[in-house]
Task: inverse folding
């Protein structure tokens, strides 16, 4: 946890995200849909920290996990 705090303290402050959420999910035929999920507080915090570490959005991580899970279920 201390390593994350140091990374966040050293992280440059930017006024715009590196990539917009819509750009992450948008294809020629598919646009993102907003969905509300409820997570335990500790899990939500861990997920946000992991997103910072991975330099990805929480949405991108969850979409990837859902896609993997659905593809596994189809097999």
Result:
């Amino acid at each position: 946890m201390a390593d994350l705090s140091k990374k966040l303290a050293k992280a440059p402050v930017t006024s715009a995200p590196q990539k917009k959420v819509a750009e992450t999910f948008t294809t020629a035929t598919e646009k993102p849909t907003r969905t509300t999920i409820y997570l335990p507080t500790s899990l939500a915090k861990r997920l946000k920290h992991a997103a910072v570490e991975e330099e990805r959005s929480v949405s991108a991580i969850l979409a990837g996990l859902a896609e993997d899970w659905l593809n596994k279920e189809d097999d």
Notes: The chain has a mean pLDDT of 81. The chain has one domain: 2-74. The radius of gyration is 15 Å.
